[in-house]
Design brief:
CATH topology of the largest domain: Rossmann fold
Number of domains: 3
Shape: elongated
CATH architecture of the largest domain: 3-Layer(aba) Sandwich
CATH class of the largest domain: Alpha Beta
Length: about 450
Amino acid sequence: MELFLSYSRRDSAIGERLRTDLEASGHHVWIDTDDIRGGEQWRASIAMGIAKADRVLLLVSPNSMQSQNVAREISVADDHGKPILPIVIEPSEIPAEFQYLLSGVQELRFEGRPYESTLTELLEDLGGPAAITNEAPVPVWEPARRQPTRRRFLKPALFLIAASGLAAIGLSQFDGAGPSEGPTEPTTRATPQQTLAPTTLHLLGGSAWLAGVEFSPHEAAYDPASEEVIVDYQVDVRQTETRTWFELYPSMSIQLADDRVLTAWRDSGEVPGLGTASLEMTYCCTPAGSDLSSATFVFGRPTEQRWTLPMKVDGTGTGPVPIHLDTTGRVEADGMYFDITDIDLVPWACVKASDGGAALRGMTVFGPVSDDRFTVMLTGTLGANASVPSSGGAADSVSLTQPNGNQSASVGSYTLYGANESATQVPFCFLVDAPGTGSYRLNWSTPYGGTDAFDFTIE
């Protein structure tokens, strides 16, 4: 049978053991530890794995119930009509998203029971062998015991999985060393022969910039079982559209003291634009014995404007700083005008500016920019008064003269469809040459031949 195992990477020790036992019994188990080939876009690969599966196994724990990626996987499984079997490995609150998707689904409880007998029940349910034998020593898994220091994206829990005798779960309860018959809660346990190092926690501080987002890390958890580093960030987003973070993965990394690089490959989900929110980012893969206390966050690739930030409580980031001007101004011709309310010089690219008519609102998505460029962004109110020559007019005949004399065209096209229309927070973006400081001139023209200009200086 083709199986898809949905789990939190913080529960990877349990997931790996279960995968090994299921495959030993003849099943094929899709698990994202090693089933995503190099170069594949991981979201598409996961969706394909779910589509091919005969059944989806969900490892229920506090970690998985707080995972946006697990929530997406179960939602995709539901969309494909795949049977879902929740396997409870640790008592957990069930968020509203999961409650809806798992309504009426019978669960299988692993927690508080001997592993081998419960596995036998699972195999019988899947139509596999009635029992398997594992001779190898079983590692003890110790889950991280830390309270989240940030707001989670999931909705409040609606109910609690409950059972008598619930206990904190670990692979020591799955070790198979207890009797196969008798009490479900053994009074003695075998001494473990191998122990996995527990998750280590690093408290962080400071901030750094990338593509319109200020990242302020709170803490990093290193899981030696999955060789991953999971970083909790507070983010201040300076755009007005929701960003899918995997677009920024190539520009986010952790550099170790020996120059090895950990790459970002998974996040906790989209973050609403224009404001602060929380984000969890996963980096892979961390060599055993790595010293994260001497590592450095790097935001931006070698050919891009980049920031670096030591992974310390008192870390101080270095890199090009956004410059904001309080200067205001106005350009107007042929009844069309642009009232400037903000001017910014930023070390990223303005990669999209939306179109619109009477309901136009400025919407800008930023991206990494090459290390020899910056962006000048003028934000304000775009409008047409009663004297506009006709019922329509394009406001895209705009350019910016740089300090070195070069001309930059605006990114985006803005159109007003009638007199007495206006739109606020409209951004006109211009890619300019580094270093970006000096005297500029905004050149304003209309389709009707009128022109105006506005001069300003960035120091």
